[in-house]
Amino acid sequence: MDDAIAVRDLVVDRGGRRVLDGISCTVARGAVTGLLGPSGSGKTTFLRAVVGVQVVTGGTITVLGQPAGAPALRHRVGYLTQAPSVYADLTVRENARYFAALHGRGRAEADRAVSDVGLAGAAGQLVATLSGGQRSRASLACVLVGDPELVILDEPTVGQDPVLRADLWARFHAMAAAGTTLLVSSHVMDEAARCDRLLLIREGRLIADDSPAAIRAAAGVDDLDEAFLRLIRAGAAPAGGAS
Length: 243
Ligand SMILES: Nc1ncnc2c1ncn2[C@@H]1O[C@H](COP(=O)(O)OP(=O)(O)OP(=O)(O)O)[C@@H](O)[C@H]1O
Known about the structure:
single chain, alpha/beta, Rossmann fold, six-stranded mixed beta sheet, four-stranded antiparallel beta sheet, 10 strands, 26% strand, globular, binds adenosine-5'-triphosphate, ATP binding, ABC transporter ATP-binding protein
């Protein structure tokens, strides 16, 4: 009942096409919710709408009790876009300290955020000289440094090796245990299995909104990958919204 996000009848058109078609769902506080779906199904568009940077055609989105995009949410919501958003001509540490300052945080918090994403050893390196995966983690550090109540992550583990992915997911769960709400898009099924709850989008419609275990049970298979394939191929009836 104490939802971080409540979406009602969300409709979004982009480029003259209906991209999200009547999505209703809720995202619980203090949990990790996964947003899954085929490429082009509307995941990024959904996240953009929740952050308040997407023009919507219809519906309502309430985020931490405010309309999505409300100025009061600026320090309360962190958003990691797919493209890293860091300054290439600053070091990792300088980036983190800059974003920390924007959120009224200090150097200690900045250095901790850098270390939390496994970049302590590269803290003094210019972002321009980082690998793609390192750059993405630098961007993540800059999102987390403000300690937002709601963290929206668009494919945060792309380009990371399995050890780093496991470390990042452990970090996400530790944040959730401390009360942070995370909404994370992913293509990777082993990551879906790590989520407390899953939203599955297909062609702009919500086709599943449940725990990984319940989705497996509903599809009658043990493998989440196979369960999703079945749901997607069956063109399952849209999920009923808020639960
Ligand atoms: N700027 C844009 N203008 C017009 N159409 C767009 C724009 N951005 C995305 N779209 C379209 O909206 C639909 C949903 O795109 P979106 O990026 O939300 O999908 P996605 O599920 O995040 O995909 P992926 O997993 O590949 O990142 C796609 O059909 C895409 O072509």
